[in-house]
Design brief:
The chain is mainly β. It contains no helices and 17 strands. It has strands at 16-18, 24-28, 31-35, 52-53, 58-62, 70-73, 78-83, 88-93, 100-104, 110-113, 118-123, 128-133, 144-146, 159-162, 168-173, 177-182, 193-197. A 5-stranded antiparallel β-sheet has the order 1-2-3-5-4, with no helix packed on it. The chain has a 4-stranded antiparallel β-sheet with strand order 6-7-8-9, with no helix packed on it. It is globular, with a radius of gyration of 18 Å.
């Protein structure tokens, strides 16, 4: 969003995701919010049961969610939200479809989804990566499965992203290293390249 009008809280979590239409979503104050500022194909407010007026271009997308630690979008137009304190992963729809609880007992703190519907979750507390294969349109109920990591002694995964061509899963293991895993068509991970040490940020010289 280009701006927020008066009345919007000044403190927000840095938990933001943008879908292919340009809508921006973030979690704050127990809700998931939506910004449609500057989007020409803005949906009607009544299109979602949870929608509500907010200050300026900001709307409430989903009320009364848990403590969301990570979000991403799926190719079917869902918003995926990870709630590690509850051990749950939810899908929320922009098309008035029912909310879907797609994983339980998984305290995921990072997520990323490919264009083919491969949703990866990082669960640092259990040192695991999970894969939920939803397909491009999620026609069937997804089933979470642990993704075997083909690296002995692999560090704990903390944050996930993908390469631009979506051929590699990029995993940040704490503050120490970054690993790059080629992704097979079925979502399994091939042997990684890495670890790549994170670059050191030079310190500014002390003031005289």
């Amino acid at each position: 969003c280009s701006h927020f009008t008066a009345g919007w809280p000044s403190t927000l979590t840095l938990l933001t995701v943008q879908d292919k239409r340009g809508y921006v979503y973030w979690a704050a104050q127990g809700h998931i919010w939506e910004c449609v500022d500057g989007v020409t194909d803005r949906r009607p407010r009544e299109a979602h049961a949870e929608a509500d007026e907010g200050p300026g271009p900001v709307l409430v997308f989903k009320r009364d969610v848990g403590a969301v630690a990570a979000m991403c979008t799926t190719p079917g137009g869902w918003i995926c939200a990870c709630e590690p304190e509850a051990g749950q992963v939810w899908l929320y729809s922009r098309a008035m479809l029912p909310d879907q609880l797609i994983a339980e007992n998984i305290s995921a703190t990072s997520c990323v989804c490919s264009r083919s519907g491969k949703l990866y979750l990082a669960e640092p507390s259990e040192a695991k990566l999970w894969l939920i294969d939803m397909g491009p349109g999620m026609d069937e109920e997804p089933e979470p499965r642990v993704v075997p990591l083909p690296v002995p002694g692999y560090p704990i995964p903390h944050a996930l992203t993908m390469s631009l061509d979506q051929s590699r899963l990029i995993v940040a293991a704490g503050a120490a290293s970054i690993w790059t895993f080629p992704m097979a068509p079925d979502g399994s991970l091939r042997p990684a390249t890495g670890p790549t040490p994170q670059p050191e940020v030079p310190h500014a010289p002390a003031a005289a």
